[in-house]
């Protein structure tokens, strides 16, 4: 049922069991992100973009001295986040039109970029830029490209091809692609939105066979 729904309704359906699926961002990625951000803080207000059930609170809560806000367009996911983290603020909105301006010092996003087509990323990043105070930071972890010899490479390629076929044959579309948000493209879109962009490795998440990090943390400064 989820696969034949829109993104919004699909996540409403998935919300009650989302935290027990592989789609929830693993704690290891959250903790590695928090470790990388800690020397750059403390921060004031925090924003989790496309917050889902609120897993990003694990990163923001120890780093931010003021209120934490999560934004998502799935009412079902927000209801779960609200139950789990009643002290945070939860806002229902489309991330392509964020309703904030000069309000936050740190923004994060986990596992959401695949829900945006490349042509939609500029609106997403422009909204985050607008939501941050001057000097504010937007952080998001991105995995390194998988080698073509990896089974995961072919699994993700197959998933994306299946999703493209599904969206060509069925409406409404369900946008979820794993191979449309490579590091170079994301960095370019962030820079075009006005950010100064750097990347730091997340060594706690391991290394590839060539010795490079499996994950990097993109740091976009307003």
Q: Extract low-pLDDT stretches.
A: none
Q: What's the helix-strand series?
A: HHEHEHEEHEHHEE
CATH top level is: Alpha Beta
Count the helices. How many? Answer: 7
The CATH superfamily turns out to be Vaccinia Virus protein VP39
Number of domains: 1
Helical fraction:
25-40%
Name the structural class: alpha/beta
Return Rg in Å: 17 Å
Q: How far apart are the termini?
A: 40 Å
CATH topology: Rossmann fold
Strand content: 15-25%
Strand line-up across the major sheet: 3-2-1-4-5-7-6
Structural shape = globular
Instruction: Report the sheet with the most strands, covering strand number, pairing sense and barrel closure.
Output: 7 strands, mixed
Q: So, CATH architecture? A: 3-Layer(aba) Sandwich
What is the β-strand count? 7
- What number is the mean pLDDT? 89
Protein name: Methyltransferase family protein
GO molecular function, one term: methyltransferase activity
Keywords: Methyltransferase, Transferase
Domain Methyltransferase: 47-136
Descriptive overview:
This is Methyltransferase family protein. It comes from Actinoallomurus bryophytorum. Residues 47-136 form the Methyltransferase domain. Pfam families: Methyltransf_25. The protein has helices at residues 7-14, 27-37, 57-63, 75-84, 121-131, 151-169, 183-192; strands at residues 46-49, 68-72, 89-92, 104-108, 132-143, 196-201, 215-221. By secondary structure, it is an alpha/beta fold. Strands 3-2-1-4-5-7-6 form a seven-stranded mixed beta sheet, sandwiched between helices.
């Amino acid at each position: 049922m989820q696969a034949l729904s829109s993104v919004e309704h699909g996540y409403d359906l998935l919300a009650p069991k989302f935290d027990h699926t592989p789609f929830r961002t693993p704690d290891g990625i959250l903790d590695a992100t928090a470790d990388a951000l800690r020397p750059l803080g403390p921060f004031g207000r925090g924003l989790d973009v496309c917050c889902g059930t609120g897993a990003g609170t694990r990163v923001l809560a120890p780093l931010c001295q003021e209120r934490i806000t999560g934004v998502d367009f799935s009412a079902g996911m927000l209801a779960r986040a609200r139950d789990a983290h009643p002290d945070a603020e939860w806002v229902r909105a489309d991330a392509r039109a964020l309703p904030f301006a000069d309000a936050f010092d740190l923004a994060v996003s986990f596992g959401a970029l695949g829900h945006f087509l490349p042509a939609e990323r500029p609106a997403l990043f422009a909204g985050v830029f607008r939501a941050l105070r001057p000097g504010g930071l937007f952080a998001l972890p991105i995995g390194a490209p998988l080698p073509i010899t990896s089974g995961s490479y072919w699994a993700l390629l197959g998933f994306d091809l299946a999703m493209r076929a599904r969206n060509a044959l069925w409406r409404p579309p369900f946008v979820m692609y794993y191979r449309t948000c490579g590091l170079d493209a994301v960095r370019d879109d962030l820079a075009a939105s006005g950010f100064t962009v750097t990347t730091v490795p997340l060594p706690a998440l391991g290394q590839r066979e060539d010795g490079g990090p499996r994950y990097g943390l993109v740091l976009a400064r307003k």
